Automatic annotation (TrEMBL):
Family statement drawn from the similarity comment of this UniProt entry: Belongs to the AB hydrolase superfamily.
Domain Dienelactone hydrolase: start-end pairs: 20-235
PANTHER family in the cross-refs: DIENELACTONE HYDROLASE DOMAIN-CONTAINING PROTEIN, DIENELACTONE HYDROLASE DOMAIN-CONTAINING PROTEIN-RELATED
EC number(s) from the headed UniProt entry: 3.1.-.-
A molecular function GO annotation: hydrolase activity
Domain of life: Bacteria
Full protein name: Dienelactone hydrolase family protein
Length: 245
C-alpha cells in the first residue's frame, strides 16, 4: 500500500469556516487531483476514507465540507439546510469554488488536472461546478441526478458519469430522465448507471442515527459504484498521463 499523508484544512465558504480532509500521495511531484463531495449529512469518516483511497491510487484528494465542521445526524436539521442549498445553484457553486480554490492551493495539485466526484448534495455541487464552466477532467456523481438552469449544461467541458439506485425515491425515474435529457440536449459526454434494487445513499454504510425514508445500504452495489468511479478517473484523469515532460 502506498504511503500517504493527511491533514485537515480550513477555508471560508457559505458564511462558515469549512473543515476539509486533504489526502496526499507519496512523493513530492504534482499529481492529478480529485474534489470529493459528501452526502447532505456532511463530511464523515466515509468520505475521509475515500479521499485516502484516492491518495493511495496516486491522486491528491480533498473531501470537502458542507456544514462548517458539523455532521448533521438529525434528518430534519439536514433537510432544513440542504433543501434551500439544493434550490440555489449560485450558493452551491460558491461552496464548490471555495473547496476547489483550497485544493488548487496545495502545491502537489496539478491545477490543469482536476476531477469532481460527489455523493448526494456533494454530487449536485460537482455538477454545478461543471455547469459554471469550470475546467474539470471528469464529473462523477452518486444519488445526484439533479438538473440545472436551462442551457447551462452546455458549459460542461468533460465527461459526466452518474450512478443511482433503481429504487431511490429521492431520485425517481422522472428525475433521472430529466437529468439525462438535459445532458443529451447539451451535447455532454454522459453515462448513467442504474443499480438494480438499490435505495438512496446505497453506497453509504449504515449509520447509528435516523435517516430519511428511502435510504439504505447495498454493499454489493456500493463496491460496484466505487469501482465505476475509479474507472472514470482512470479513463479521464490517469495518474500517469503523458504530458510531454
Amino acid at each position: 500500500m502506498t504511503t500517504i499523508t493527511t491533514r485537515t484544512v480550513e477555508y471560508p465558504a457559505d458564511g462558515l469556516t469549512m473543515i476539509g480532509h486533504l489526502a496526499l500521495p507519496a512523493g513530492v511531484d504534482r499529481r492529478p487531483a480529485v474534489l470529493l463531495g459528501p452526502e447532505g449529512m456532511g463530511l464523515s469518516d466515509v468520505e475521509r476514507r475515500r479521499a485516502d483511497a484516492l491518495a493511495e491510487l496516486g491522486y491528491v484528494a480533498l473531501a470537502f465540507d458542507l456544514h462548517g465542521g458539523r455532521y448533521s445526524g438529525d434528518p430534519e436539521e439536514m433537510l432544513a439546510r440542504c433543501m434551500p442549498l439544493l434550490a440555489d445553484p449560485d450558493r452551491m457553486r460558491h461552496i464548490g469554488h471555495a473547496a476547489l480554490d483550497e485544493l488548487r492551493t496545495e502545491p502537489r495539485t496539478d491545477p490543469d488536472r482536476i476531477a469532481a466526484i460527489g455523493y448526494g448534495t456533494g454530487g449536485a455541487i460537482a455538477l454545478e461546478l461543471g455547469r459554471a464552466g469550470v475546467n474539470l477532467r471528469a464529473i462523477g456523481t452518486v444519488n445526484a441526478t439533479t438538473t440545472g438552469r436551462p442551457g447551462e449544461a452546455a458549459r460542461i467541458r468533460c465527461p459526466v458519469w452518474a450512478g443511482v439506485g433503481s429504487e431511490d425515491p429521492i431520485m425517481p425515474p422522472a428525475q433521472r430522465n430529466a437529468f439525462t435529457a438535459e445532458m443529451q440536449a447539451a451535447g455532454v459526454d454522459w453515462r448513467l448507471a442504474v443499480y438494480g434494487g438499490a435505495l438512496h445513499a446505497f453506497h453509504h454504510p449504515p449509520v447509528d442515527h435516523p435517516v430519511v425514508p428511502g435510504v439504505g445500504y447495498h454493499p454489493q452495489h456500493a463496491q460496484r459504484a466505487w469501482r465505476d468511479v475509479v474507472d472514470l478517473l482512470a479513463e479521464c484523469l490517469p495518474v500517469t498521463e503523458n504530458r510531454g515532460e
